[in-house]
Design goal:
With about 350 residues, this protein is of the alpha/beta class. About 40% of the residues lie in helices and about 15% in strands. It has a domain of about 240 residues: 3-Layer(aba) Sandwich (Rossmann fold). The structure holds nicotinamide-adenine-dinucleotide (NAD) and 2'deoxy-thymidine-5'-diphospho-alpha-D-glucose (DAU).
C-alpha cells in the first residue's frame, strides 16, 4: 500500500511515517513544504530507503499537487500538513488561512481529480484521512467530554482554520463522493516535537536554567495522547474506518498544566539533577494566552467500540521516556535553536498581524 502523507516532516508526521514503515508493508510519499516546523532530520534514517520518497512541496500549489498524484498514484492520503501552533496563529494568522484552509482545498481538489480516474479495487479502497484537532470543539468547563457530535465552536485563529478544513473535507465527501474520514485528537506528546510546544519547551528551558513560563495560573487542562498511540489510531482508522465518518482520539490522561510541568520537573530532578535546587524553582507564572481554552477532554468511545483501538502507552512512563529523549537528543533540538527560534514567548499579540 502506497500512502501519500502530507506534513510528514513535522512532529506527528515523522512519528507516523516511522510507525507505518516499521510495519514493512507500506511505501510512503511525504509531501512537505519544510516550514519552520518541518525537519528532515527527524526522518534521516529513511534517506536511502527505497520505500520512502520525499517531495518538497506546498499543498497550496495546485499544479504541484496534481503532479504529485499523477506521478505517485497513491492508494491513500493521510493529511497532516498544517500550521499547528496556537500562539503563532495569534501573532500571524495569515499562514494558517493559507495552509490549513487554502492548502486543504487544493489538496482536496487534486485528490478528487485523481480519484475520478481510478477504477476497480484502487477506486474502492482509496481513502483520504484528514487529521484534525479537538480544539475545533471549543473549550470545556470542569466536566464533560467532546464527542463526535459536539457542535463546532473554535476560538483561536488556529482552531478556526482547522474547523474550516474539517468542513471542507466533509463537503468534498458529500458533494463529490471523495472517500474521506476525519479524526479529531487531543494534545500529542513524544519525541521530535518542535520546542515551541509545552513539554519540549519546559524540558529545554529547565535544563538551560531559564524560567519555565506557565500561562495564567496553570489551571488549564489538556488530555495527553502519546504520539505513537495516535499513529496506531490513524493506521486503524485508515484501514478499518467507515468512509464519511469522524473518530475522536484521546489519551484519557487529563492533566492541569501546572501539574504536568511539576511532573516534568520531578523527572528532571531525578534524571538530570540541578545544582541550584529543584527545577520547580524555575517555574514562572506569566501573562495568559489570549482566548486560552480552559479544558479539552475527549470521549473516545466510538473508536474504541467500533474499531477496537485504545491507548496502550501509560502516561507517566511515556512522559518520563519523552523527557529522557530530549535529554539524549540535544543535537536534534539544538539545530533548531541555532536557527530562527530561541524559545521566545509567542502569542502575545493583541492585534492581528496580517503578514
Ligand atoms: P507540526 O507543526 O509539527 O508539523 C506540520 C508539518 O506540516 C511540518 O513538517 C510543515 O513543514 C508541514 N507544512 C506546513 N505547511 C505546509 C504546506 N503548506 N505544505 C506542505 N507542508 C506543510 O504539526 P504536528 O504537531 O505534527 O501536527 C500535525 C497535524 O496534526 C496538524 O494538522 C495538526 O493540526 C494536527 N494535530 C496536532 C496535534 C498535536 O498535539 N500536535 C493534536 C491534534 C491535531
Ligand atoms: O488539543 C490539540 C492541540 O494541542 C493541537 O491541535 C495543536 O496543534 C497543539 O499545538 C496543541 O495545542 P495547545 O495549545 O494545547 O498546545 P501547547 O503545547 O501550545 O500548550 C499546551 C498548554 O500549555 C496550553 O494550555 C498552553 C500552555 N502553555 C503553553 C506554552 C507554550 C504554557 O502554560 N506555557 C507555554 O510556554
Amino acid at each position: 500500500m502506497k500512502i501519500l502523507v502530507t506534513g510528514g516532516c513535522g512532529f506527528i508526521g515523522s512519528n507516523l511515517i516511522r510507525h507505518l514503515l516499521a510495519s514493512t508493508i507500506h511505501s510512503i510519499v511525504n509531501v512537505d513544504k519544510l516550514t519552520y516546523a518541518g525537519n528532515p532530520n527527524s526522518l534521516a534514517q529513511f534517506a536511502d530507503d527505497p520505500r520512502y520518497t520525499f517531495c518538497r512541496l506546498d499543498i497550496a500549489d495546485p499544479v504541484a499537487m496534481h503532479d504529485v498524484f499523477s506521478r505517485h498514484a497513491p492508494d491513500a492520503v493521510i493529511h497532516l500538513a498544517a500550521e499547528s501552533h496556537v500562539d503563532r496563529s495569534i501573532d500571524g494568522p495569515a499562514a494558517f488561512i493559507e495552509t490549513n484552509v487554502v492548502g486543504t482545498f487544493e489538496l482536496l481538489t487534486a485528490a478528487t481529480d485523481y480519484f475520478a480516474q481510478l477504477t476497480g479495487d484502487k477506486a474502492d479502497e482509496f481513502r483520504l484521512l484528514h487529521v484534525s484537532t479537538d480544539e475545533v470543539f471549543g473549550a470545556l468547563g470542569a466536566t464533560g467530554q467532546f464527542t463526535e457530535s459536539t457542535a463546532y465552536d473554535p476560538h483561536s485563529p488556529y482552531s478556526a482554520t482547522k474547523a474550516a478544513s474539517d468542513h471542507l473535507v466533509r463537503a468534498w465527501h458529500t458533494t463529490y463522493g471523495l472517500p474521506t474520514i476525519v479524526t479529531n485528537c487531543s494534545n500529542n506528546y513524544g519525541p521530535y516535537q518542535f520546542p515551541e510546544k509545552l513539554i519540549p519547551l519546559m524540558v529545554i528551558k529547565a535544563i538551560s536554567g531559564q524560567p519555565m513560563p506557565v500561562y495564567g495560573k496553570g489551571e488549564n487542562v489538556r488530555d495527553w495522547l502519546y504520539v505513537i498511540d495516535h499513529a496506531r489510531a490513524i493506521n486503524r482508522v485508515l484501514t478499518a474506518g467507515v468512509v464519511g465518518q469522524t473518530y475522536n482520539i484521546g489519551g484519557d490522561s487529563e492533566r492541569r498544566n501546572l501539574d504536568l510541568v511539576l511532573s516534568v520537573c520531578a523527572i528532571l530532578d531525578e534524571l538530570h539533577p540541578r545544582a541550584g535546587g529543584p527545577y520547580s524553582d524555575l517555574i514562572e507564572f506569566v501573562a495568559d494566552r489570549p482566548g486560552h481554552d480552559f479544558r479539552y477532554a475527549i470521549d473516545s468511545t466510538k473508536i474504541r467500540t467500533e474499531l477496537g483501538w485504545e491507548p496502550k502507552f501509560d502516561f507517566e512512563t511515556s512522559l518520563r521516556q519523552t523527557v529522557q529523549w530530549y535529554l539524549t537528543h540535544r543535537s536534534w533540538w539544538q539545530a533548531i535553536l541555532d536557527g530562527n527560534y530561541q524559545l521566545e514567548r509567542l502569542g502575545n499579540a493583541t492585534t492581528t498581524n496580517k503578514s
